[in-house]
Amino acid sequence: MIERLGGGVRRRVRGGDAERHQEHAREEQLSLHGCGLVFWNITPNGAKIFRATLTPSEAAAVIVPQVEIVPGVFHLPGYLSPEAQCELVERVLALGTAPAGFYRPTVRGGGQMRIDMMCLGLHWNARTYRYAAMRGDHDGLPVQPIPGPFVALATEVATTVGMRIEPQVCIVNRYPVAGKLGLHQDKDERRETLEAGVPIVSLSLGDTARFILGGLRRREPVRAIALASGDALVIGGPSRLRYHGVAGLHRGSGPPTLGLSGRLNLTFRQYALASDDVPGA
Ligand SMILES: O=C(O)CCC(=O)C(=O)O
After folding, report:
1. Which of 152, 156, 174, 274 has the highest CB neighbour count under 10 A?
2. How far apart are the C-alpha atoms of 114 and 103, rounded to whole Å?
3. Is 2.60.120.590 the CATH number for 67-277?
4. Ligand 1 — pocket residues by CB below 6 A?
5. pLDDT < 70: residue spans in the chain
């Protein structure tokens, strides 16, 4: 039976020690805060009371609904609970209004993107297509670091589908209702990272996106995947260099409780296998 937890991710708990958590699963919340999987009891008036932290073996016993679309591409619908989505939106918007927050990039051909962007950890320079510690194509500011709970969340998503990532970059895209992102490959990370198939972990918030997934060559046919608020998507292994993009949004389809117009998408990337190779390290 799949349980819908009060917050956090939608999980099914199987066997072993983890079973003791199941009886109260509907009252519990997986918090975004802290590392690991933290359960909370939610009282009728909404207060959170700390209950337990899952050990790594308990966490490994947790099953999350997932669909492997093609080898290496996993869609995890509803990975984030409504509460976790709200918390993530709040934190992203706070970062987005701080120095080195959202801006509208101009790409090397001179055109403006149809989305706003904010890079955390490392900056993706839209003019050079290279990563750097500073925003050389915009205001020269150093990027903000990736908050620890974001790193923990992305790592957890990858682990859920049997992959590994050490997130060194989080690119946050803010889509206005008419926002789009053309078909492209994410290939600006170091070659050894790409060749190892280290995944990209994507989290979607707000309006549902018409995400398009192609093949390893631009001309290959694409398929559409509806990425709704709270969904996670992992693109790795043999699919790491698949073309992909966002053809548009289903306007107004996001949860009203998020208070978001359009959509936010976070993609977590590992730039280098060795931390010494990370710019600014
Ligand atoms: O918004 C999305 O779902 C995709 C984002 C993306 O492709 C990218 O940032 O490279």
Report:
1. 174
2. 11
3. yes
4. 171, 173, 181, 186, 202, 209, 211, 227, 244, 246, 265, 267
5. 1-63
